[in-house]
Amino acid sequence: MSADLLIRNRWVIDPSQKLNGGYDLVISDGRIMDIVTTDDGKTNDGKTNEPVQARETIDAAGCIVTPGLIDLHAHVISESTQLGVRADSVGIEQGVTTLVDAGSAGAWTFDAFLKEGVEPSITRVLAFLNISGDGLCRGGAELSDMSRLAAKDAVTLIREQPSIRGIKARMSASVVKNNGLAPLLVAKQAAREAGVPLMVHIGNAPPTLSEVLSLLDEGDVVTHAFHGKQGGILDVRGQLLPEAESALARGVLFDVGHGESSFSFRTMQQAKALGIAPYSISTDVHARNLNGPVHSLTHTMSKFLALGFTMYEIVAACTSAPAKVLGLEREIGTLAPGAYADVTILRRETMPIALTDSEQETILAKEAVFAQQVITSGKVLTCT
Ligand SMILES: [Zn+2]
């Protein structure tokens, strides 16, 4: 078998195929061609390995190979919002092959997303479109004026633009002001009409979390699910809110969306003790949290290692899980033959490291995850 690239002697973790072991990865024409177990000389489907003649071979034992990491919540429109960061700086340069800009752009500012987010980037950049026509491009209370909601234009644009994978609505008091649940109802209606999931930001009430959760359906995403503010998923006794329990049972997905004020070690530890894990781990990286507490997706992954999650669980939450939210699980977030050859090569290093959450709480951890190399559609790049 001849191929463009062979990645050898690596520990592969690919939760989409329930793989966690020694495999070689064969890449050709920007796609995964084959994944071959190195233990018994058999391919994944039981056939005997053919020797691979590859033009390029990567061999660095001791690393972990995963599907290209996906960050489901980031902000990469830098000029129009003064909030976003350059996509490649938090994307491929940090081992993240796919970034989702969560609501920086609305239907009326979508050109800025294409110009500032997509066009200059090697990273695959997708979007959740803000239900506000302005997105975050004009200040921070984008759902306070119902006349600026752009449901019809959002639905039209989603049908035209495959890079839009969902709708975003920020449901906290500072964003909706006196509008209560009304913007959420508009956003939900538009999402159902366009056939895409809804991502809802939660924060300070009103509206209350119970009111917000009761409107969400299977496949919708709650971002900032593990924040440490009052009125979160846990009550004062640390018990799960009944509405959160029934939302989880319905298939509503809890995303991390770390951010500058939206991830608490304490909340996550209490939730973990109740058997609740995040469905997806995302950063909400933007200009104000890039230099702390967020830094990068791999830094966020290190925090979950420190909290006692397994590497397999963490990789699933950064690959197969977000790919499913995006409806792209056959193309990205997987190393199955035929998928895009998006691959991240990670190092798990034993070292003392201080990890800080959004509540300024610090854990002194003993190990951290770093991105070493990334392959995007078959092209090999070294991470910074
Ligand atoms: Zn955000």
Automatic annotation (TrEMBL):
Gene3D superfamilies: Metal-dependent hydrolases, Urease, subunit C, domain 1. Residues 64-348 form the Amidohydrolase-related domain. InterPro entries: Amidohydro-rel, Deacetylase_Atu3266-like, Metal-dep_hydrolase_composite, Metal_Hydrolase. It comes from the Bacteria. This is Amidohydrolase/deacetylase family metallohydrolase. It comes from Brevibacillus ruminantium.
